[in-house]
Specification:
Layout: E1 8-14, H1 18-30, E2 34-42, H2 45-52, E3 57-60, H3 67-72, E4 77-80, H4 87-94, E5 103-106, H5 113-117, E6 124-128, E7 138-144, H6 150-161, E8 164-168, H7 174-182, H8 184-201, H9 206-227, H10 231-238, H11 244-254, H12 257-276
Parallel strand pairs: 1-2, 1-4, 2-3, 4-5, 5-6, 7-8
Antiparallel strand pairs: 6-7
Helix pairs in contact: 7-12, 8-9
The structure holds NADP nicotinamide-adenine-dinucleotide phosphate (NAP).
NADP nicotinamide-adenine-dinucleotide phosphate is lined by residues 14-20, 41-44, 47, 81-84, 86, 90, 107-109, 128-131, 182.
Length: 278
């Protein structure tokens, strides 16, 4: 992650909800200077207002007809943060409003670079960030599309590096990346929920169950990060031969988690392909 990236050009978000909002919050938290500022447009004032408190120029269609035009004026990086189904209409709407040297960056799952390049003449880049970008611990995959030069990819990388780590890869790998790091936070939370439920079933009250399970997740992840050790090695250190953890791990291993996770990731890839076909 680069804390020193400075002088990013003006960035406009078309749609800043859960993911777009996470990116904006990460950018603001990173304290990077953005020449021309961070701008955002949403349909509703309810979505626009909270972003204004961050110092973002945040507009809503429902209160300003020319909101899109205003946020795009001077913007050199235009991030599309709407749902995948909304991308074609948004591209058609912004095509004539983009600065000639602006790069259009999609964060939408399953929307191909070719389908974007059909609608705008500007360079296009496809990305897949994840929600830990909100706390600047994100992982973003970046694939360059038509007209996206090395320097454009470097610029987009700098934007996303303010909120975590970046992996540049060919587009045909982005659905696979998305199935791991894009959807991955949901898998981790599901695990946390399951461990919390196990704590309840062992007789802990709601609050204690959450402290035990969530605290263990956060602590174990922090140890993984801080130690630089392999997860298998960290697991080995908790697992004394013939001990209690060994028994528990044997039960989990019987569930063949690698096969389950692979099936889950493959389901995510299949869904991304369905979305790409419209
Ligand atoms: N959530 C994730 O973890 C995640 C991870 C990676 C990628 N993504 C991608 O991020 C994109 C957004 O997902 P999300 O979860 O952030 O959805 P979301 O919370 O529903 O955000 C979408 C935002 O777009 C706004 N919007 C809708 N139509 C618009 C339009 N025509 N012009 C301007 N703004 C418009 C909505 O505003 P109003 O509510 O005011 O209509 C809303 O704030 C999707 O393409 C998804 O594939 C999400």
């Amino acid at each position: 992650m680069s804390d020193t990236a400075t002088g990013l050009p003006a960035i406009a978000f078309i749609g800043a909800g859960s993911m777009g909002g996470a990116l904006i919050r990460g950018l603001v938290a990173a304290g990077v200077s953005v020449d021309g500022g961070i701008r955002a447009v949403n349909r509703t004032e309810a979505k626009a207002a909270p972003l204004r408190e961050l110092g973002v120029t945040s507009l809503a269609y429902e209160t300003q007809d020319d909101a899109t035009e205003r946020v795009l004026r001077g913007a050199k990086v235009v991030v599309l943060g709407v749902k995948p189904a909304g991308i074609p209409d948004v591209l058609d709407e912004i095509a004539g409003l983009l600065e000639p040297d602006a790069v259009v960056v999609s964060i939408a799952a399953g929307v191909t670079l070719a389908s974007m390049a059909d609608r705008v003449t500007n360079p296009v880049v496809r990305t897949m960030p994840n929600t830990p970008s909100l706390v600047r611990q994100g992982i973003t995959g970046i694939a360059a599309g038509p007209r996206a030069t090395t320097s454009i990819v470097a610029l987009v990388s700098r934007v996303f590096e303010t909120v975590g780590r970046v992996v540049v890869l060919p587009e045909d790998r982005i659905d696979a990346l998305s199935a791991i790091s894009g959807s991955g936070p949901a898998y981790v939370y599901l695990f946390a929920e399951a461990l919390t439920e196990a704590a309840r079933r062992l007789g802990f009250g709601e609050e204690d169950a959450r402290v035990l399970a969530e605290g263990t997740f956060v602590g174990a992840a922090a140890l993984l990060d801080a130690s630089g050790e392999d997860p298998a090695e960290l697991r080995r250190r908790v697992t004394s031969p013939k001990g209690t953890t060994e028994r528990a791990i044997a039960v989990l291993e019987a569930a063949d988690l690698p096969a389950t996770f692979t099936a889950a990731a493959e389901a995510a890839v299949a869904r991304a392909r369905e979305l790409a076909q419209g």
